[in-house]
Amino acid sequence: MFxxxxxxxxxxxxxxxxxxxxxxGAIDTTVDEEPGAPLSPRRPLQYTRRFPVPxxxxxxxxxxxxxxxxxxxxxxxxYTAGSxxxxxxxxxxxxxxxxxxxxxxxxxxxxxxxxxxxxRGHGDTVTSDDGDLSAETLCADTVSIWTKMFGSTQxxxxxxxxxxxxxxAIAVRAAASHSITSLEGVVVIDVVEGTALGSLPHMLTLxxxxxxxxxSQEAAVEWALSTRMSRNEEAACISLPNMLKPSPDGTxxxxxxxxxxxxxxxxxxxxxxxxxxLAIEKPKMLVLVGTDRLDKALTIGQMQGxxxxxxxxxxxxxxxxxxxxxxxxxxxxxxxxxxxxxxxPAFVRR
Length: 350
Hints:
The structure is a single chain. The chain is α/β, with parallel strands linked by helices. The chain is 32% helix and 17% strand. Strands 1, 2, 3, 4, 5, 6, 7, 8, 12 and 13 form a ten-stranded mixed β-sheet that branches. The protein is globular.
């Protein structure tokens, strides 16, 4: 991880005017080259590698399973960490995999059951149509996975959905569908409708600028760190290799998910997101790297106290990787604040 000046590592909690937070929470964008991601300049950096590549997934997660869903015509890779407490269902952004949540999962698993899934077309998930990355399909996949793992009992497990970028958009849609019956909160990381839609015209150009292949996984990690796609070496060493697969000719590695081929779905991920987010009648939180990313609807909603907002200004777009400790603390504080998974005091139950 690159050292940062102390003043840059401040966390900023934004609430409604006059202090305090409203009862609820937030919205997205994507990887620095993920559709909808905020655009920012990059300077090549030098670093000395301190971690092996790839880092083992089982240093952070307890187990994984390949969940077969006949109704979704696919088998979904799902990582789990922790054995008790409310479920924290983590949805990654476009091009990432569940392993983007590894460092945060390690910090949360002593209190919660952290679940990270490789979404359709990503990671080790395999479906009959990996190219269908429409918002409707990804949302239906997410609901079906939750139902199979946690929703079949009479009293389903209290659940908070946490989503980054594209995953944040899907988290909002899953919450708005009312299909996750024990949903108790939504956390959206670095995705805002206005910013995301405004950046889409530039995304194909940015995607063309990134290398199509790498001679080794180590070379890919070095590229990600030097361009500041990732700002945390440990996170990059576990997350980035899982975003790659061996090239067909066996000479190196290529991207698993070709984001440019999903262009037809980009606008659908984000259109209507702000209003949909604000309408969710559960506690909500938006985690951003800067308040300048709020669009008009969210700015008004934040001033009305309709969601909680946290700003982590030292992070890049992959907030859950760059500032994993702060993200884990923020999610934990959110769940404590709203007593998610906790029995209500007697005077409230009466």
